[in-house]
Design a protein that fits this description.
Elements: H1 9-27, H2 72-78, E1 93-100, E2 109-116, E3 125-131
Antiparallel strand pairs: 1-2, 2-3
């Protein structure tokens, strides 16, 4: 990664310092604390304690998860309070189809839901698949 040719030498030096700090974090040359604040609640932390991949964060002694309720400041940052809801059309068409997972040995049952006419999206189709046990 490089700075553009329109940047000053001072800006390039700051950028290089920042990259060096990131490299040190990647090599874990010294201990550090990483704080992730996600008011949307859509972040997931993966533990890698003692070489074990995909550990449950609840069992990793180095991970501390603190859930909280969003406040007005968080809602403003996410644009929730300023959403335009005039002429909001809540009609959606949903189709559910029972199918099987084609590449699984046991042909696991699943259902696929397809939504059309979704609010906030023009001319789109949203589709998701969920596997379940009967």
């Amino acid at each position: 990664m490089y700075t553009g040719d329109s940047n000053t030498k001072d800006t390039a030096a700051l950028y290089d310092e920042h990259l060096q700090r990131l490299r040190e974090l990647l090599t874990v040359s010294k201990p550090f604390t990483f704080i992730l604040d996600d008011p949307s609640g859509n972040s997931f932390i993966e533990g890698r304690c003692e070489g074990k991949r995909n550990m449950d964060p609840k069992t990793d002694p180095q991970i501390c998860v603190e859930n909280y309720t969003r406040d007005a400041k968080h809602n403003a940052l996410l644009g929730i309070d300023t959403m335009c809801t005039e002429n909001y059309d809540t009609t959606t068409t949903t189709t559910n189809t029972d199918t099987t997972v084609p590449y699984c040995d046991d042909k696991a049952p699943q259902y696929t839901s397809t939504h059309t006419n979704s609010p906030h999206y023009d001319d789109t189709v949203q589709q998701y698949t969920n596997t379940y046990e009967k």
